[in-house]
Design goal:
The protein is of the alpha+beta class. The chain has two helices and three strands. Strand 1 (26-33) and strand 2 form a beta hairpin. The longest helix is centred in the N-terminal third of the chain and has 12 residues, at 3-14.
Length: 81
């Protein structure tokens, strides 16, 4: 095996799922805007870097799914006869 392949193999073995590099140089903030949630990337001093994500702020469940049903009762409560 050539020296080039051995170095690449070492890099692959050293890389893991957790980064040990320098800490992030930005923070993310979520801002509600009308019916959206906008996730923006800001520098550490608060300057705008970019938009990270846009989500729709809506509950897509139907009314029937939203209405909770009582499917339990408390054992400590006396039964009314």
């Amino acid at each position: 095996m050539s020296k080039h392949h051995e170095e690449n193999d070492d890099e692959i073995l050293d890389s893991g799922t957790h980064s040990h590099g320098p800490p992030e140089s930005y923070v993310t903030q979520v801002y509600p805007f009308d019916k959206y949630l906008i996730t923006v990337k800001l520098s550490l001093d608060g300057r705008f870097i970019g938009i990270e994500e846009v989500q729709i702020n809506k509950d897509f469940r139907s009314y029937k799914q939203k209405v909770s049903r009582k499917i339990y009762h408390y054992l400590e409560e006396p039964e009314i006869e």
